[in-house]
Write a structure and sequence with these properties.
With about 290 residues, the chain is mainly beta. The chain is built from no helices and 24 strands. Among the domains are: about 90 residues, conserved putative lor/sdh protein from methanococcus maripaludis s2 fold; about 70 residues, RNA polymerase II/Efflux pump adaptor protein, barrel-sandwich hybrid domain (OB fold (Dihydrolipoamide Acetyltransferase, E2P), Beta Barrel).
Length: about 290
Amino acid sequence: MRKKTIAASAGGALLIVATVTLFHSHLSAEPPVSPSAGEYENTGNTVAVTRGNISNVLSMDAELITRPHYEVPAPLEGAFSSDVHKGQMVDAGDTLGVIRGSGKEAKIVAPAPARVGEIFVSSGEAVPEGIAVIELQDRGFALQSAVAPSDRYRLTALGPDNTVRASIDNGPGPFVCPPLGGPQRDADGNLSVLCAVPKNIKVFAGLKGLMAVSLEKRKNALTLPISAVAGSAQAGQVNLVENSSRTVLRDVQLGITDGVRIEIRSGLSEGQRVTSRAPALDSAGG
């Protein structure tokens, strides 16, 4: 599967949505770090830890399909009651049912015009969060993206409030594409994501495109350029520049990334500077 970048115009500014592999390493760094001392004299470029808003976006290849079936999950744990019946036609925003939990209540609404299929749960039955309760069949065009195994867990947060943008190869876009249910699983265990193509977008089945799913957002988070950080989505390392211009290896806890910058959850403070290149793989030292 190929992964690409979607560029969109938002409010007169250019918005670039990218996907990135969260492991960044370099077989050589400048200058080399002594494994025993774990520090060196900094002579290269540095970047500062800054605060800003950041979004975690998953970008995937997509294909146009027609009238797909999809399952709608329960938004929370509780007792389910249905407001529809099999074969009923519903429009976007229509209430399909309600989940009533411990002091909470959530409506399940149709994300797009659809025909009601199977209702998997009896009214009054208790269900856990995330389990499928109703099947719908979309009444128009949809984009479908296969989810790579390495990205599956990232989609646990996918819901109706997530923003999905899409574009058609050599065609219209980007445009908002409302997600249809949660991640969909086929008979072979493969996962995919569906989104409804708006009626004003002219398309036909078989066209190819791209889908970008905004999964998480952080406001006023500490961030660094991804090129300055070595590590995974949870733990990493940077070359911290001290006041004496000596550079030492520093462990950091990592959060989400937007493909350009990555969230620093702990290990650094705002204003501290690190080398613009990530530590080398052999710089951990003992």
